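Suppose you are handed a protein chain with no further information: no name, no annotation, nothing but its sequence. What can you learn? This example shows the usual starting point.
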Amino acid sequence: CWRDPTQAACEPWRVRWESRPLHSPAQPPAPGSWARRLPGPKGWQAGAITAITSSLLIIGWNKDGKLCLGAYHLPDLKPAWMSAAEPAWAAFLGTTNVSPDESWAIVGNRRVDLKTGEEHLIAPRWTTLAISDDYAWGSDGHAVLTCTKGGTIWPARTDAPTPANTILVSGGINGKALVT
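A reasonable first move is to predict its three-dimensional structure. Written in C-alpha coordinates, the prediction is:
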Protein backbone atom coordinates (compact mmCIF):
# COMPACT_ATOMS: atom_id res chain seq x y z
CA CYS A 1 0.00 0.00 0.00
CA TRP A 2 1.06 3.58 -0.46
CA ARG A 3 1.59 5.74 2.56
CA ASP A 4 0.67 9.38 2.29
CA PRO A 5 3.67 11.23 3.77
CA THR A 6 1.28 13.52 5.65
CA GLN A 7 -0.36 10.55 7.40
CA ALA A 8 1.09 8.44 10.21
CA ALA A 9 -0.17 5.09 8.93
CA CYS A 10 -0.54 3.26 5.66
CA GLU A 11 -4.06 3.49 4.21
CA PRO A 12 -4.52 0.52 1.84
CA TRP A 13 -8.09 1.45 0.92
CA ARG A 14 -6.84 4.47 -1.00
CA VAL A 15 -6.07 3.50 -4.55
CA ARG A 16 -4.09 5.44 -7.11
CA TRP A 17 -3.73 4.13 -10.66
CA GLU A 18 -0.47 4.97 -12.31
CA SER A 19 0.98 4.36 -15.70
CA ARG A 20 4.63 3.53 -15.14
CA PRO A 21 6.99 0.81 -16.39
CA LEU A 22 7.20 -2.19 -14.07
CA HIS A 23 10.98 -1.87 -13.82
CA SER A 24 10.92 1.69 -12.48
CA PRO A 25 11.44 2.19 -8.75
CA ALA A 26 8.32 2.52 -6.63
CA GLN A 27 7.77 6.07 -5.50
CA PRO A 28 4.96 7.27 -3.30
CA PRO A 29 2.55 9.66 -4.99
CA ALA A 30 2.59 13.33 -4.13
CA PRO A 31 0.47 14.35 -1.11
CA GLY A 32 -3.16 14.95 -2.02
CA SER A 33 -2.93 13.07 -5.33
CA TRP A 34 -5.02 10.06 -4.31
CA ALA A 35 -7.54 8.99 -6.94
CA ARG A 36 -10.33 8.03 -4.54
CA ARG A 37 -11.17 6.33 -1.29
CA LEU A 38 -12.83 2.97 -1.84
CA PRO A 39 -16.16 2.61 -0.04
CA GLY A 40 -16.43 -0.45 2.15
CA PRO A 41 -18.64 -1.76 4.93
CA LYS A 42 -19.00 0.79 7.74
CA GLY A 43 -16.54 0.10 10.55
CA TRP A 44 -14.50 -2.42 8.56
CA GLN A 45 -10.81 -2.05 7.73
CA ALA A 46 -9.47 -2.65 4.25
CA GLY A 47 -7.08 -5.55 3.98
CA ALA A 48 -5.12 -6.86 1.05
CA ILE A 49 -5.85 -6.84 -2.64
CA THR A 50 -7.39 -10.27 -3.24
CA ALA A 51 -7.59 -10.31 -7.05
CA ILE A 52 -7.39 -8.11 -10.10
CA THR A 53 -9.16 -9.10 -13.31
CA SER A 54 -9.54 -7.20 -16.56
CA SER A 55 -12.66 -5.51 -15.16
CA LEU A 56 -12.50 -5.77 -11.32
CA LEU A 57 -10.30 -4.89 -8.38
CA ILE A 58 -11.22 -7.11 -5.41
CA ILE A 59 -10.27 -6.09 -1.87
CA GLY A 60 -10.64 -7.98 1.41
CA TRP A 61 -12.36 -6.08 4.24
CA ASN A 62 -11.72 -7.17 7.87
CA LYS A 63 -13.55 -6.79 11.18
CA ASP A 64 -13.60 -8.88 14.36
CA GLY A 65 -12.00 -11.95 12.77
CA LYS A 66 -14.38 -11.87 9.79
CA LEU A 67 -13.69 -11.04 6.18
CA CYS A 68 -15.79 -9.98 3.22
CA LEU A 69 -14.75 -9.16 -0.31
CA GLY A 70 -15.52 -5.92 -2.09
CA ALA A 71 -15.30 -5.64 -5.88
CA TYR A 72 -14.78 -2.37 -7.73
CA HIS A 73 -15.13 -1.81 -11.48
CA LEU A 74 -11.99 -0.91 -13.39
CA PRO A 75 -10.95 1.69 -14.23
CA ASP A 76 -13.49 3.96 -12.47
CA LEU A 77 -13.43 2.01 -9.14
CA LYS A 78 -17.20 2.21 -8.67
CA PRO A 79 -18.51 -0.50 -6.30
CA ALA A 80 -19.66 -3.69 -8.06
CA TRP A 81 -20.59 -6.01 -5.16
CA MET A 82 -19.79 -6.95 -1.58
CA SER A 83 -19.69 -10.59 -0.46
CA ALA A 84 -21.12 -11.91 2.79
CA ALA A 85 -18.87 -11.75 5.86
CA GLU A 86 -17.25 -15.03 6.86
CA PRO A 87 -15.14 -15.90 9.91
CA ALA A 88 -11.50 -16.99 9.57
CA TRP A 89 -11.37 -16.57 5.78
CA ALA A 90 -7.93 -15.80 4.33
CA ALA A 91 -8.17 -13.64 1.21
CA PHE A 92 -5.18 -12.17 -0.54
CA LEU A 93 -3.41 -12.65 -3.87
CA GLY A 94 -1.59 -15.80 -2.65
CA THR A 95 -4.86 -17.56 -1.78
CA THR A 96 -6.76 -16.64 -4.95
CA ASN A 97 -7.15 -18.49 -8.25
CA VAL A 98 -9.25 -16.81 -10.97
CA SER A 99 -10.77 -18.80 -13.84
CA PRO A 100 -9.42 -17.98 -17.31
CA ASP A 101 -12.78 -16.46 -18.33
CA GLU A 102 -12.80 -14.39 -15.08
CA SER A 103 -16.33 -15.51 -14.18
CA TRP A 104 -15.42 -17.18 -10.87
CA ALA A 105 -12.56 -17.62 -8.48
CA ILE A 106 -11.41 -19.75 -5.61
CA VAL A 107 -10.40 -17.57 -2.66
CA GLY A 108 -8.89 -19.71 0.06
CA ASN A 109 -11.40 -22.50 0.56
CA ARG A 110 -14.41 -20.71 -0.97
CA ARG A 111 -15.69 -20.36 -4.50
CA VAL A 112 -16.74 -16.84 -5.47
CA ASP A 113 -18.98 -15.78 -8.36
CA LEU A 114 -17.16 -12.74 -9.75
CA LYS A 115 -20.35 -11.30 -11.25
CA THR A 116 -22.36 -11.23 -7.98
CA GLY A 117 -19.93 -11.79 -5.09
CA GLU A 118 -21.89 -14.84 -3.93
CA GLU A 119 -19.49 -17.19 -2.15
CA HIS A 120 -19.70 -20.70 -0.71
CA LEU A 121 -17.38 -22.97 1.26
CA ILE A 122 -15.89 -25.78 -0.85
CA ALA A 123 -14.24 -27.85 1.90
CA PRO A 124 -12.68 -26.78 5.21
CA ARG A 125 -9.14 -27.87 4.25
CA TRP A 126 -9.36 -27.13 0.50
CA THR A 127 -6.12 -26.14 -1.25
CA THR A 128 -6.49 -25.26 -4.94
CA LEU A 129 -4.28 -27.05 -7.45
CA ALA A 130 -5.77 -25.51 -10.62
CA ILE A 131 -8.87 -23.84 -12.04
CA SER A 132 -10.54 -23.73 -15.46
CA ASP A 133 -13.67 -21.98 -16.72
CA ASP A 134 -15.87 -24.80 -15.35
CA TYR A 135 -13.90 -26.75 -12.72
CA ALA A 136 -11.38 -26.35 -9.93
CA TRP A 137 -9.20 -29.12 -8.62
CA GLY A 138 -7.93 -29.12 -5.09
CA SER A 139 -6.82 -31.21 -2.17
CA ASP A 140 -8.64 -31.61 1.11
CA GLY A 141 -5.45 -32.94 2.70
CA HIS A 142 -6.19 -36.55 1.77
CA ALA A 143 -7.26 -36.69 -1.87
CA VAL A 144 -7.74 -34.57 -4.95
CA LEU A 145 -11.33 -33.33 -5.34
CA THR A 146 -13.13 -31.57 -8.16
CA CYS A 147 -15.38 -28.57 -7.57
CA THR A 148 -17.63 -27.41 -10.38
CA LYS A 149 -18.27 -23.74 -11.03
CA GLY A 150 -21.78 -24.33 -9.68
CA GLY A 151 -20.43 -25.76 -6.43
CA THR A 152 -20.84 -29.51 -6.86
CA ILE A 153 -18.05 -31.43 -5.18
CA TRP A 154 -17.11 -34.80 -6.48
CA PRO A 155 -16.22 -36.65 -3.28
CA ALA A 156 -13.00 -38.59 -2.96
CA ARG A 157 -13.30 -42.35 -3.12
CA THR A 158 -11.11 -44.75 -1.20
CA ASP A 159 -8.98 -45.24 -4.34
CA ALA A 160 -8.80 -41.54 -5.20
CA PRO A 161 -5.40 -40.23 -6.28
CA THR A 162 -3.24 -38.17 -3.97
CA PRO A 163 -1.70 -34.81 -4.92
CA ALA A 164 1.68 -36.56 -5.37
CA ASN A 165 0.44 -38.88 -8.14
CA THR A 166 -2.00 -36.55 -9.88
CA ILE A 167 -1.48 -34.79 -13.19
CA LEU A 168 -1.78 -31.06 -12.61
CA VAL A 169 -4.31 -29.19 -14.68
CA SER A 170 -2.85 -25.77 -15.37
CA GLY A 171 -5.87 -24.19 -17.04
CA GLY A 172 -8.72 -24.75 -19.43
CA ILE A 173 -11.42 -23.27 -21.60
CA ASN A 174 -14.70 -24.47 -23.14
CA GLY A 175 -14.83 -27.57 -20.93
CA LYS A 176 -11.34 -28.73 -21.94
CA ALA A 177 -8.34 -28.88 -19.62
CA LEU A 178 -4.69 -28.02 -20.25
CA VAL A 179 -2.64 -30.69 -18.50
CA THR A 180 1.03 -30.30 -17.64
